[in-house]
Amino acid sequence: MYFFFDEIDSIVSASSSSNGNDHGMGRGATAEARVLSTFLNEMDGVDGSMSDGVLLLGATNRPSTIDAALLRPGRFDRVIYVPPPDRDGRRAILESQCSHWNEKALEPIDNDGVDIDYLSSDAVSGLMTGAEIVGACREAAMIAVKEFISLYPAAENSELVPRVLHCYLEQSLRAVKPLLSDAQILIEYTSFENKNND
């Protein structure tokens, strides 16, 4: 059995302590501090061996906010930096979003000349995380819906559906400022991994 905590920093971060640099010492009586203490106590009930059949996973985009007590041996004792998707990964995410739109009755975008190879290139979506690509795709769908409503404000013909065009996707992707375009963030992630796996 496994448990996955996404954005674990929002549940149990160093700011849950009375002092962000106290590494878990002197926690106050705030609700956040109580959540952190309870979480740590529960984690101590998992012995970390393969025989207990429990695997705990946590993910964060803000590793510097993680309380040091979470990273001691027996808790989250292995840190893995997951890089952004490569070109094949970005292409797969874009293709997945396109097929999702088809399921939602949006017009198939292949007919509109969408160049997924181009959109998944480093020049357009390089350094983007999967979440950033999905967010941009959702924005492109919203552009398509808004455009459709402006052209057909009272459309009752069920054959008329919004069309997600290549230009909408490219516009949305280019509007994203990838988190990892900040070199300091990338340095923080890799140094955090190295520091906590020594």
Detailed description of the structure:
The chain is mostly helical. The chain has two domains: 2-78, 3-Layer(aba) Sandwich (Rossmann fold), CATH 3.40.50.300; 87-179, Helicase, Ruva Protein, domain 3 (Orthogonal Bundle), CATH 1.10.8. Helix content is 43%, strand content 4%. It contains seven helices and two strands; from the N terminus they run βαβαααααα. The chain has a two-stranded parallel ribbon. α2 (87-103) runs parallel beside α5 and α5 (130-151) crosses α6. The chain is elongated, with a radius of gyration of 22 Å. The model is unreliable at 16-26 (pLDDT under 50).
Task: Write the topology of this structure.
Blueprint: E1 2-5, H1 31-44, E2 55-58, H2 87-103, H3 116-119, H4 122-125, H5 130-151, H6 166-175, H7 183-196
Parallel strand pairs: 1-2
Per CATH, the architecture of the largest domain is Orthogonal Bundle
Helix content: 40-55%
Mean pLDDT: 80
Rg calc: 22 Å
Instruction: Identify the CATH class of the largest domain.
Output: Mainly Alpha
Question: What is the CATH third-level topology name of the largest domain?
Answer: Helicase, Ruva Protein, domain 3
Secondary structure class reads mainly alpha
Number of domains: 2
Count of helices? 7
Distance between the termini: 28 Å
Give the structure's gist in a few sentences.
The chain has 198 residues and is mainly alpha-helical.
Annotation keywords:
single chain, 198 residues, mainly alpha, Rossmann fold, Helicase, Ruva Protein, domain 3, 2 domains, two-stranded parallel sheet, 7 helices, 2 strands, 4% strand
